[in-house]
Amino acid sequence: MKAVIQRVARASVTVDDQVTGQIGPGLLILLCAVQGDGPEQADLAARKIANLRIFEDDAGKMNLSVLQSGGVALVVSQFTLATDLRRGNRPGFSGAADPDLARELYERFCDQLRGHGIPVETGTFAAHMAVELVNDGPVTIIWDSADL
């Protein structure tokens, strides 16, 4: 799995002029399942991101997780994170997981985050979405389970 994790002051996602997810302080997570991913990768990603210490403590150091900071998560499916740009200028997306499996892993990831005690809002899987955010810091982290 691949994820772009952004610490935000607020974020929202809109589909067809309807807000489907909206949060205050917390994490905006753009999530992509890639070929070869299974439940283990979804669980690992949720565990890692739930415990990622990128929120400031009283001393101003990034020492707290989203749960410890009282934050929430907005998770948006983003198959374009599987982009292959090695040939030409038109991106290829053949590295993305099959849509049915990707949906299953996206939902599992969200359920796992909830299981860690983190409130989760979502976009709409496979929809054209408008995502708005105010990045806090800015703090943006790119995570890839293939790097482990």
Q: How would you explain this protein's 3D organization?
A:
This protein is of the alpha/beta class and 148 residues long. It has a single domain, classed as D-tyrosyl-trna(Tyr) Deacylase, Chain: A (3-Layer(bba) Sandwich). The chain has helices at 39-51, 99-115, and strands at 2-15, 18-23, 26-32, 55-56, 62-64, 72-77, 120-122, 130-144. Strands 1, 2, 3, 6, 7 and 8 form a six-stranded mixed β-sheet that branches. The chain has a two-stranded antiparallel ribbon with strand order 4-5. Helix 1 packs parallel to helix 2 (99-115). It is globular and about 45 Å long.
Number of strands: 8
Series of secondary-structure elements, N-terminal to C-terminal: EEEHEEEHEE
Q: How much strand content do the residues show?
A: 35-45%
Mean pLDDT: 97
CATH-level-2 architecture: 3-Layer(bba) Sandwich
Helix content: 10-25%
Note the overall shape.
globular
Number of domains: 1
Structural class: alpha/beta
CATH superfamily: D-tyrosyl-tRNA(Tyr) deacylase
Number of helices: 2
Q: Provide the gyration radius in Å.
A: 15 Å
The major beta sheet can be summarized as: 6 strands, mixed
Query: Are there runs of 5+ residues with pLDDT below 50, and where?
Result: none
Based on the model shown, name its key terms.
D-tyrosyl-trna(Tyr) Deacylase, Chain: A; single chain; alpha/beta; 148 residues; six-stranded mixed β-sheet
